Amino acid sequence: MIQTILVLKRTGENICSKTYGHAKWNETLTSGFISAAFNFTENTFGSEIEDIELGPYKVLFEKTEDLILVAFTEKSDSIINVREKLIEIKEIIYDKYRNALTNRLCSQDDFEGLIEIIDKIISESLELDLSEELRIQYQDILESFRSNEEILDCDLISSSGVPLTKEWKRDFLQLCLRMIDAFWKSKKFVLDQIILSYEERNLILHKINEKFVLSALVRRNTPLGLATFLVEETAGIMAKLD
Q1: Dihedral of the alpha carbons of 104, 108, 111, 112, in degrees to the nearest 10
Q2: Where in the chain is the domain with CATH 3.30.450.30?
Q3: Per residue in 15-64, pLDDT tens?
Q4: pLDDT digits over 34-43, tens only?
Q5: Three-state SS for 139?
Q6: Residue ranges, CATH 3.30.450.70, the chain
Q7: Residue 56: how many CA atoms within 13 Å on its side-chain side?
């Protein structure tokens, strides 16, 4: 769950902030911390922060020449999904409040209505962009795959972190979402498959296409070669449906 959205000017002014979860953030301290962190990384490393982890939370940034948009989220939230929301907010600010950004000094009054716009974006639920026919076909394939004695559980998860059947236990879903972010977070690497060992079981995530990843938790003592074959075979069947 997104805990807080914060929009700052590069010069440090707080344009907008809204808390949605139980975590409480001191706006003044938070703004000062972010400005200091950006100045430090720029001056020391010549680069900017993309995301950091603070205890049970992640902090994601979307930057422009004028703005720093910040999202404080739980670690289980998909980086891709949250970043898409930040980008949408950024685009609306530049479309609707471009003139206000040119002011030498800004106040929250210059961005009237922005809180309501952000509320709407944050509250929008995520759904898989699938026709009902295709959804049923995917579900049938997953059900058949799940019936294999070597497979403990499986699901199809979108690039924005939405599971198709939503039957994963929370800890496994969080683990899957954290790994799925790795497929899309960096364009420097092309990842097709991630394999993790979890309590002597293998968790396999296989990228089907730019939209979906097939996740599978494999039974203990199942040979890894057999497990990857089963996952790749099922992913291949799904790929032909798109």
Answers
A1: -150
A2: 132-239
A3: 888 888 776 666 667 777 777 777 777 777 767 777 777 777 888 888 88
A4: 777 777 777 7
A5: helix
A6: 2-123
A7: 8
Report the C-alpha gap between 91 and 80 in whole angstroms.
16
DSSP 8-state secondary structure symbol assigned to residue 125: P
The answer for 46, left when phi > 0, alpha when psi is -120 to 50, beta otherwise, is left
Query: Global pTM?
Result: 0.64
Amino acid occupying residue 20: Y
Instruction: Name the token pair of 229.
Output: 């074959």
Whether the Cβ atoms of residue 90 and residue 61 lie closer than 8 Å to each other: no
- The CATH code for residues 2-123 is 3.30.450.70
Domain 132-239 belongs to what architecture?
2-Layer Sandwich (3.30)
215, β-bridge pairs: 155, 205
